[in-house]
Amino acid sequence: MYSERLELLIDGTFRAGSDGAGEDVIDPATGEALAHLPHASRADLDEALAASARGFKVWKAMTAIQRYAIMDKAADLIEARKAEIARTLTLENGKPLAEAIGEVQFSADVVRWYAEEGKRAYGRIVPARIPGVRQMVFKEPVGPVAAFAAWNFPASNVIRKIAGALGAGCSIIIKPAEETPGTAVAFGRCFQEAGLPAGVLNIVFGKPAEVSAYLLASPIPRKVSLTGSTAVGKLLQKLAADTLKRCTMELGGHSPVIVYEDADLEKTLDTVVTFKFRNAGQVCTSPTRFYVHESLYDGFVTGFAERTRRLKIGHGLDEGTQMGPMIAARRLDVMDGFVADAKANGAEVVTGGERIGNKGYFYAPTLLKNVPDGARIMSEEPFGPIAPTTSFSTFDDVIERANSLPYGLASFVFTRNGALAQKTEAALEAGMVGVNHMVVSTAETPFGGVNESGYGSESGIEGLDAYMRTKFVTEV
Predict the structure, then answer these.
(1) Is 203:185 a contact under the CB 8 Å cutoff?
(2) Rg of the chain over all Cα atoms, to the nearest angstrom
(3) pLDDT surpasses 80 at 469
(4) Which residues are catalytic?
(5) 92-122: pLDDT as tens digits
(6) Which domains does the chain have, with CATH numbers?
(7) Start-to-end CA span in the chain (Å)
């Protein structure tokens, strides 16, 4: 069933690791091994670093239109293989096939967008104060990139980094998550078949702490991009400081959802339930703290529970599945801990709150009622299918509670009052705010957080600029 052959990509060649180390990739819906993943040795990493340095020189020297042609062909290949790649994604990650297909299509769109935008990395002419002097500002690629991607979006987390780097003219070494390697390998094959020069894209795997420490200690990468937890982001930033590498950090979140008294309750419920349980809640922008106006609270809880109980849970390849498993057994224990703590603090389990079956890593979609702010789940990112809800009475009250955490990735607001929406948007501490919908991620818009959710953006013109540096030239 799992058709992707797992290999490293180093200097344009797919190969095994040189020391035979590796690990099994597990289907989270069954707990069974899908394939064996090779790890890169230090010698392999050295080869990848050297290849990225050589590849950067070749790729940077090409014109933007030449780079565009290769990237556009790679996007065509990704789209042509969408069904196959999505199947691999579902097997290693667990999310429903329909979600996986959408994610792979998004990835093709991202490659095309960056390919186009790379042709518009404009500089400018600055009028000089001195007669006869010409002043020019150039944008140029920052250099080889070291990138690290999380397992929850095996396609989009990886492709944002690859496409952003390539669009700017950089080479890249990427370490995707070891839990979900096949999607990234499939993308690598598409880029190589599209004619990407050797060394421009390198894909490696291994023990995350060892690989990241080794790559970041090298002076070759000039840029680091991470999608991961806040704790890992802080560690990598410290490692990057030794060689002053530029960083983009897309880290954890704990997204508040504010439902005002004038919200369209039925449309709000249809939206939030769908997005809450997407990828079993394993989404950094997942709605995770529900603050509902006291006048709507009882109806909100009732409607949320009704919709939650109707969800079809199962293997992502099964027809009609709406929510798949969690990524690993360890996450089930975390969910149990959140529920037990919430109950101990006076919350009520309306539905769910338990594991499902004895095969795979399934946890019931869970709704918690009257969750106090002191419960762990209100301050620690759950990253799972648990929806804690509580009520509020005033604007000042809900804004203070929504902004009470160090995170600031995404926030969501539901209201029919445009002035109230704008007032809330301005007050929220978040890199992204969705009003009356939750689609905050597209190829052409910046994606990123503030505070301990990280800094810098992926996608949009901001995402391209993250891989570029500025050079000023003045000449007589």
Answers:
(1) yes
(2) 23
(3) yes
(4) 250, 284
(5) 999 999 999 999 999 999 999 999 999 999 9
(6) 8-251+451-475 (3.40.605.10), 255-435 (3.40.309.10)
(7) 65
